[in-house]
Structure formats: C-alpha cells, structure tokens
Design a protein that fits this description.
The protein is of the alpha+beta class. It has helices at about 40-50, 55-60, 135-145, and strands at about 1-5, 15, 65-70, 90-100, 105-115, 115-120, 125. It is built from 3 helices and 7 strands, in the order ββααβββββα. A hairpin with a 2-residue loop joins β5 and β6 (about 115-120).
C-alpha cells in the first residue's frame, strides 16, 4: 500500500491502491552496457561523463568490498612472466579496499591471494563475473583510465 501525502502531517495521509500510479512509476534499472559493445554514441557520452567523475568517491559508493577480480594486465612488468608468484597476471585476487590514489597508476587497492597480501593498481583488474554488482563500476573505471 502507498500513502497519498496530501499534507505534511502523517495523520492526514490517505491510503492509495498499489496500482494507483500505473506504469508512471516504472523505472528502468537495467544497466546499458552497449557502450562496451560498439555503441559509439553512448561510449562518447560515457567518456564525457567519466572525465568529470570523482572516481574515488564513485567507487567507494559503488563497489562492495571484498570482491573477486582477475589481474588482466601487469603494467609494471614485474610479474608478467612469473605465473608462480602471487598477484601475477591471470591470477584471481580478493580486492579488500581502496588504499590510495597514485598520479601515475591511479587508484591502488589492497588485495589478497591465498595467504599473501599486497597492493595493485585497480586499473589492472576485472571482476570475475559480469553479473557481479562490482563488474560495471570497475569496468567503467578501467576503460576511462586507459583513455584518459
């Protein structure tokens, strides 16, 4: 049941049937990922939005820690050929939180792989599953970071 607030006093609010608003209140909450699938118009609009975004604040609100991620890139070159060391390219890590912002490497996150703990640039990671709630916020950050 929805309440019809015709005054500021709750005792004056009247009950209204749930279908009172019909389709007027329908909101599309599905994420439009077509910018990542060749929709150049939406991609350009997203890039413009991303340039003005406070990424730290946005990701603190939109990422739920911890979350699983795969290290897709190793921009430092430190681990790129060493598959047997923790945090190497292709390894799955648990992202614990955002630690700091670096001028060159972007946001740095604390990660865990097995018993090992460390830090990685967030721009080198991708959430393991596309249906995970952290996938698109991180994907937007990674694409923006690569194109800044």
């Amino acid at each position: 049941m929805i309440l019809n607030a015709t005054s500021n006093k709750p005792e004056d609010w009247l009950p209204v049937d749930d279908d009172y608003f019909g389709d007027v209140m329908t909101i599309n909450t599905e994420y439009d990922a077509s910018w990542d699938e060749g929709n150049h118009v939406l991609y350009d609009a997203m890039l413009t939005e991303w340039k003005n975004r406070d990424w730290y604040e946005y990701l603190v609100v939109n990422l739920t820690f911890p979350f699983p991620a795969i290290r897709l890139e190793d921009n430092s070159g430190q681990f790129s050929t060493k598959r047997d060391v923790p945090f190497g390219q292709g390894h799955t890590v648990e992202v614990k939180d955002i630690q700091m912002e670096d001028d060159l490497r972007g946001l740095i996150v604390s990660v865990k792989e097995g018993r090992e703990k460390g830090h990685l640039p967030l721009c080198e990671l991708e959430v393991t599953a596309k249906d995970h709630p952290c996938y698109w916020p991180l994907r937007e950050y990674v694409v923006w970071f690569a194109n800044r």
